[in-house]
Specification:
Elements (H helix, E strand, L loop, with lengths): L3 E10 L2 E10 L2 E6 L9 E4 L4 E4 L1 E6 L12 H10 L2 E6 L10 H14 L3 E4 L15 H4 L16 H14 L2 E4 L12 E2 L2 H6 L3 E2 L2 H17 L2 E4 L5 H12 L4 E5 L1 H5 L20 H12 L5 E2 L14 H4 L10 H10 L6 H8 L1 H7 L13 E11 L18 E11 L2 E5 L1 H4 L1
Parallel strand pairs: 1-4, 1-5, 6-7, 7-8, 9-12, 10-11, 12-13, 13-14
Antiparallel strand pairs: 1-2, 2-3, 5-15, 15-16, 16-17
Helix pairs in contact: 4-6, 6-7, 7-9
């Protein structure tokens, strides 16, 4: 493998920015210094005017395979992730078959090993078939998955969740919860707010999210398990998690770019604005931003959830829930939050890299000897979101047609190029 020298870039991490050259040798970071001279045979990648970061980590994506490859495949999803600067993604378990045993998880892992262009870490289910009833064999699965989740389905039974957390504590694994109280949904499909009232839609109340979070935080405190809350969307969720962290509960959480940048006032009668949880009040969006800034929110995860065009063409009422986000996440956050001075670049990068890595104990970083998982960003690039150009099979995004600033131009996974904007470098 040829040595690579990323030269002249601005290295961005949580503690700040600095100009640095990065030498990659045999797939690992060999040196980081203000100035490094290339040796004969080294390929120099000019990064002047570019930002250089640890490769992004997304702990919540849906790659749909096995079972729903018409929506997305591990191949297309990982290519989309690489284009977005991601070098590690964690694939949710709402698949067919559900990864709830070593045998079913092995089916997914076989496809990952064959087709993924970046690191894809699978989840296992909490309960068999994600039905919320019988626990999976945590001990048999823990070495094969990144965490346990019934994502897409909230565990309704407090007794089942308590038993899951007790076993998770014994096995020292993560419970990642989709928090949704089915008894409070009442057929709703967007936020129970002024848009729903004005347009005759059935709403989903915020308590359907924060109620289960409150229950689970108490269980996590009692069992001592590592507990992660998926895709929080409302003010009360932020407050509950902030308070729990202050009490020493072992909790982490994520939100998504769309919850940080949109609210119910942005809704249109179009399936590309429909996701679960839904876009809520602007007050909720502001609370999420504050939670990100003060560290209550550990990670930004896309909840990349591709569907077919037909499944997303039935308006707010009839469309499937979920949007894609891997290819727009960083430029969206940079344009909407960093450039206006709302959130620092360092904090955004931390929430895309170090935050998820700490929460899930993932490999990575920028220390000498670590795998060279890196992304290079052109902060000045201006482009318009065109879903027809996505590498993902999913096309539904509320940001279609929006002009964004910044673009990923290079992604390296273990020193290998998994995405390259040839218009920039060659």
């Amino acid at each position: 493998m040829k040595d690579l020298l990323l030269k002249g870039g601005i290295l961005v991490r949580a503690e700040g920015q600095r100009r640095a050259d990065i030498l990659v040798r045999e797939g690992r970071i060999a040196a980081v210094a203000p100035h490094l001279e290339p040796t004969p045979g080294t390929e120099v990648i000019p990064c002047a005017g570019k930002l250089v970061c640890e490769g992004f980590k997304d702990i919540h994506v849906h790659l749909r395979e096995p079972g729903q490859s018409y929506k997305e495949t591990i191949r297309t999803g990982s290519l989309a992730a690489a284009r977005g600067g991601y070098t590690t993604v964690c694939a949710m378990p709402n698949l067919d078959p559900v990864p709830d045993s070593p045998e079913t998880l092995a089916l997914e892992q076989e496809i990952i090993d064959r087709d993924a262009c970046i690191r894809v870490l699978p989840y296992a289910a909490i309960t068999r078939g994600r039905k919320g009833e019988e626990l999976v064999d945590f001990a048999a699965l823990k070495g094969r998955c990144v965490a346990f989740s019934d994502d897409g389905s909230g565990v309704q039974s407090e007794a089942v969740m308590r038993a899951a957390m007790e076993e998770a504590a014994r096995q020292d694994v993560i419970i990642a919860a989709h928090c949704e109280d089915n008894s409070l949904l009442h057929g709703g499909y967007i936020h129970e707010g002024r848009y729903a009232a004005a347009h005759g839609h059935k709403g989903i109340c915020a308590e359907s999210e924060w109620g289960p979070i409150r229950r689970d935080l108490q269980l996590a405190a009692e069992t001592g398990c590592r507990y992660h809350v998926c895709h929080i969307s409302c003010e009360q969720s932020v407050e509950l998690i902030r308070e729990a962290k202050a009490r020493g509960v072992r909790v982490s959480c994520e939100t998504a770019p769309h919850y940080l940048t949109l609210c119910e006032d942005d809704l249109q009668e179009d399936g590309r604005f429909k996701m679960n949880p839904p876009l809520r009040r602007d007050r909720d969006r502001e609370a999420l931003v504050e939670g990100l800034k003060d560290g209550t929110i550990d990670a930004i995860a896309t909840d990349h959830a591709p569907h077919s065009a037909e499944e997303k063409a039935r308006g707010l009422r009839g469309s499937a829930m979920g949007i894609v986000g891997l290819e727009t996440a960083f430029p969206l956050l940079y344009t909407r939050l960093v450039l206006p001075g709302i959130v620092s670049l360092e904090r955004i990068v931390e929430a895309l890299t170090e935050g998820p890595r700490r929460a899930f104990r993932l490999a990575g970083g920028l220390d000498i000897g670590t795998a060279a998982d890196l992304c290079v960003i052109d902060p000045d690039a201006l482009w318009t979101v065109n879903p027809e150009e996505f590498l993902s099979l999913g096309r539904a995004t509320p940001f279609a047609g929006e002009s964004l600033r910044s673009r990923i131009v290079l992604t390296l996974k273990e020193g290998n190029v998994c995405f390259l904007d040839k218009g920039v470098f060659y």
